[in-house]
Amino acid sequence: KAGVTQTPRYLIKTRGQQVTLSCSPISGHRSVSWYQQTPGQGLQFLFEYFSETQRNKGNFPGRFSGRQFSNSRSEMNVSTLELGDSALYLCASSLDRAGRNIQYFGAGTRLSVL
Amino acid sequence: KQEVTQIPAALSVPEGENLVLNCSFTDSAIYNLQWFRQDPGKGLTSLLLIQSSQREQTSGRLNASLDKSSGRSTLYIAASQPGDSATYLCATGEGGSEKLVFGKGTKLTVNP
Predict the structure, then answer these.
(1) Nearest-CA residue of chain A relative to B93?
(2) Partner A contacted by B32 (CB < 8 A)
(3) Among residues A52, A53, A68, A97, which one has the fewest Cβ atoms lying within 10 Å of its Cβ?
(4) Given 3-state DSSP classes, what are the helix, strand and coil percentages for chain B, each rounded to the nearest 5?
(5) pLDDT tens, B9-64?
(6) How far is the C-alpha of A10 from the C-alpha of A112, rounded, in Å?
C-alpha cells in the first residue's frame, strides 16, 4: 500500500510569488491535514480537510489556503510569498477523524523563499 | 489552548541504555496522544498512539504511557541502538478538535 506522497519535494521561489503544493493520501483515507515545520516554531497546524470540506484551521494568514478533491487528494496554496514562509510543509492523512486516528505523514515539501 | 512541552530538548546516551522521554500537555480533554519519530530532513513516522482510555501502549522496544489527569506521557525506549537516533515528537488534540498540537521534540543521539 503506497504511503502519503507529496510533490514537489523541493521548491525555490522568490518573494511575492505564489506556490501550490500537492498531497496524495493513502488510498482509502479521507482526512488530510497540513503542517508547517520551522526550526523556531516547530510543527504548526495549518488546516484539515475531510470529504472536500475544511474542518479545522490553524492561526495562519489568509495567504495560506487549501482544498481537497473528490479523490481525497489535497493541494495547499500560498500567495504573495514572504521570507518567513520558508519551511518544511508536511501533509498527513488518516482514515477518518484526524484527531482520533493514527496520522501518516508524507516526506514533505521543502520551500525556500529568496 | 493546548500546549505541549517535551523535556529534555536533547539527549545523548551510550548504546544499550534504557531511556525515558517526557511529554506534558495542559488540556486533559484529549482523545489520544501520539508519539512520532522524525529523521533529519524527513517526514514523521508514527510510533504509538494511546487512546485516552488507555494507560499504556507497547510496540517492540517502545512503551508509551499516558496519565491524563496529570497531563503527562512518557516514551520508554529499551536497550537503545544507534538506529534509534532521531527526533521524537509527541502530539495531542486541542479542545476535542481534529487539530493536533505538537511538542518541539527531543533530539536523541545513541552513541555506539
Answers:
(1) A99
(2) yes
(3) A53
(4) 5, 55, 40
(5) 999 999 999 999 999 999 988 888 999 999 988 889 999 999 888 999 999 999 99
(6) 8
